[in-house]
Amino acid sequence: MRLENTVALITGASRGLGLEIAREYAAKGARLVIAARGAEALDAAAHSLREGTEVEALALDVSQDAERLVHAAVSRFGRVDVLVNNASELGPSPMPALEDYPWQELERVLRVNVLAPLHLAQLVLPAMRERGSGVIINVSSDAGVEAYPGWGGYGASKAALEHLSRTLAAELEGSGVRVYTVDPGDMNTEMHQLAEPGEDLSGLPEPRAAAPAFVRLVEEETAAFRRVKAQETATAV
Ligand SMILES: NC(=O)c1ccc[n+]([C@@H]2O[C@H](COP(=O)([O-])OP(=O)(O)OC[C@H]3O[C@@H](n4cnc5c(N)ncnc54)[C@H](OP(=O)(O)O)[C@@H]3O)[C@@H](O)[C@H]2O)c1
Fold it and tell me: Using one digit for the tens of pLDDT, what is the confidence trace for 47-73?
């Protein structure tokens, strides 16, 4: 699939990795639907992206307004070819050990990191199936695979997202819809700062280092499912 003239819906695209993916997709000629909760940062992102492409921007919470988001995308552009579930919730900061985790707060983490991506996928899938093509990319984390003390709540949500992605791909076999999970690797972003308050993260890679992998997955990958480490895939996909 070439990104040119496709419609890409990217959640959490007001800053960090989501904004860098949006920039890469815009440069390739995709039309964009972007979402985040904070209207000011989202408007600023949309304004800069509009220099290169058409952009529909919606200030909303993906765990509450998935239907409104997809409806707006289809009303404006008629379709969604690529869905990137990037928006994510870290949970309490600093991150508590599971023994002390306020478990009620995990519900919110799961709503944003697992249920919203599933809901959005459910909303775009019927039309993708009908067209026999589409790409769904779920942004995961190594915390969804490795057991890092303190990262258990967030990590459990990413592990669930990983499994959901693999199962979805198995269920979509032969449909022409591809499903990927991407571990973007450590990045110097607001979320990472929240995870490690007070730490100097200036030595970490900037999120733009991980964004090109999201282009390659759409344009070059053919496998129906793949788990990718974005910063290690310069030639892997
Ligand atoms: N940074 C890292 O080192 C790292 C490592 C591994 C994986 N990841 C993953 O990479 C992805 C991007 O993270 P990032 O580091 O780029 O984070 P970030 O810079 O904090 O950006 C997060 C984006 O998501 C939006 N967002 C958060 N909650 C939302 C919600 N409920 N509804 C709609 N939008 C929401 C934020 O805007 P608002 O706050 O205004 O809504 C923002 O646009 C996440 O899936 C994260 O888990 C990051």
Answer: 999 999 999 999 999 999 999 999 999
Q: Which residues of the chain have pLDDT under 70?
A: 233-237
End-to-end CA distance of the chain: 14
3-class state of residue 47 by DSSP = helix
The verdict on whether 154 is a catalytic residue reads yes
Query: Is any atom of ligand 1 closer than 6 Å to the C-beta of 191?
Result: yes
Which of 79, 75, 107 shows the shortest CA–CA distance to 91? 107
Q: Which atom of ligand 1 is nearest to the CA of 86?
A: 45
The rounded radius of gyration (Å) of the Cα atoms in the chain is 17
6 touches ligand 1 (CB under 6 Å) = no
The residue count for the chain: 237
Q: How far apart are CA 61 and CA 102, in angstroms?
A: 22
CA of 86 to the centre of ligand 1 (A): 6
Candidates 33, 34, 37: which one to mutate for ligand 1, based on the most atoms within 8 Å of Cβ? 37
Write down the CATH number for the domain with range 7-232: 3.40.50.720
155 alpha carbon – ligand 1 mean position (Å): 14
For residue 12, the number of C-alpha atoms closer than 13 Å in the C-beta half-sphere is: 20
* CA distances (Å), origin 68, targets 183, 190, 230: 28, 26, 30
Considering the chain, what percentage of its residues have pLDDT values greater than 70? Answer: 98
Catalytic entry in 25, 101, 148, 154 = 154
Decide: pTM greater than 0.90. Answer: yes
